[in-house]
Design goal:
The complex is a heterodimer. Chain A has two helices and three strands, in the order E-H-E-H-E. By secondary structure, chain A is α+β, with helices and mostly antiparallel strands. The longest helix of chain A is centred in the last third of the chain and has 16 residues, at 51-66. Chain A starts with a strand and ends with a strand. In chain A, 14% of the residues are buried. By secondary structure, chain B is of the alpha+beta class. Chain B has one domain (2-212): Class I glutamine amidotransferase (GATase) domain (Rossmann fold). Chain B contains five helices and nine strands. Chain B has helices spanning 2-9, 53-62, 72-79, 136-144, 203-212; strands at 29-32, 66-70, 86-88, 96-104, 120-127, 131-133, 148-153, 172-176, 182-185. Classes of the chains: A alpha+beta, B alpha+beta. Chain A binds chain B through residues 13-14, 16-17, 20, 64-66, 68, 70-71, and chain B through 42-43, 46, 50, 79, 84-86, 88-93, 131, 133-135, 167.
Chain lengths: 80, 217
């Protein structure tokens, strides 16, 4: 089964990298970008065929390693 | 770091590999030094914080043993949950490598007994991710409990945004755990212990720890 874990910075956490990207987009003349926040995407293959089990496993992975929940939120999607 | 520890304590430190599961018998101080670990992939210190040896470091700390994390070591201790908060990318996005001034906020900890409260020391920093942040409640707790023990300052000890090199909340450069036995700091006191290098301001930390542990050199 394929799954995707998306990790994003919590609201209110300063994101200097996002700010730099935002500035670069502006300097490229790409108008209309109000703000940029940078995050991470993990594409993960799961053994077995039980989506509920996969989701539980991925939540554990995100809590233990993929995200630092002090500053980041995560979202788990089992794509099947 | 190893050289500094030997010089200031009179004992050769034992090197512990990250895959080990126990610390040497009689360990009184664990030092997680700076550098980089696992390419700092994912987040700085994140993978090293999950290394097998960290369980042993955690139980050493839980028993009241001293733990010092410098630079990447500080990032690892935060990721390992031994200290609160996280070290983010420097606010100005630049890697900073230079001497900075720190104000020593307290002298009544095992790590700062070699200094006077309010004393300013000059030590080097070399990091790209030293911007300390935590949620408001955690910061209030750290400040309220006097657990911020080093703060970036001007040469005469003023706390000023112009001297907050990486954008750290409240100019925080070093914090201790709730029990005061775990210290994490971004600057490198171990690099300023020899007059030939230009400063011995870092020596007080190691001399203080050695005195606390009863084996001053």
């Amino acid at each position: 089964m394929k799954a995707r874990v998306t990790v994003t910075l919590k609201t209110g956490i300063l994101d200097p990298q996002g700010k730099a990207i935002e500035g670069a987009l502006r300097s490229l003349g790409i108008d209309g970008v109000a703000s940029v926040r940078q995050g991470k995407v993990f594409d993960i293959e799961i053994e077995g065929a039980d989506p509920a089990k996969a989701e539980a496993l991925l939540k554990q992975a995100a809590d233990k390693l993929l995200a630092n929940t002090v500053i980041e939120n995560y979202d788990v999607k089992v794509l099947g | 770091m190893a050289r500094t520890l030997a010089m200031t304590s009179g004992h050769e430190p034992a090197m512990v590999w990250h895959t080990e599961t126990e610390l040497p018998k009689g360990t009184d101080l664990v030092v997680v030094p700076g550098g980089f670990s696992y390419g700092d992939y994912l987040r700085c210190g994140a993978i090293a914080a999950r290394a097998p040896v960290m369980d042993a470091v955690r139980s050493h700390a839980a028993k009241g043993g001293l733990v010092l994390g410098v630079c990447n070591g500080f990032q690892i201790l935060c990721e390992a949950g031994l200290l609160p908060g996280v070290l983010m990318r420097n606010a100005q996005l630049r890697f900073i490598c230079r001497d900075v001034h720190l104000r020593v906020e307290r002298s009544d900890t095992p790590f700062t007994r070699g200094y006077n409260a309010g004393q300013v020391i000059r030590v080097p920093v070399a990091h790209g991710e030293g911007n300390y942040i935590a949620d408001g409640e955690t910061i209030a707790k750290l400040e309220g409990e006097g657990r911020v023990i080093f703060r970036y300052s001007s040469p005469d000890g003023m706390i000023d945004p112009n001297f907050n090199h990486n954008g750290a909340t409240n100019g925080i450069a070093g914090i201790v755990s709730e029990n005061g036995n775990v210290l994490g700091m971004m600057p490198h006191p171990e690099n300023h212990v020899d007059a030939d290098i230009g400063s011995t301001d870092g020596r007080g930390l190691f001399a203080g720890v050695a005195a606390h542990l009863g084996n001053a050199a």
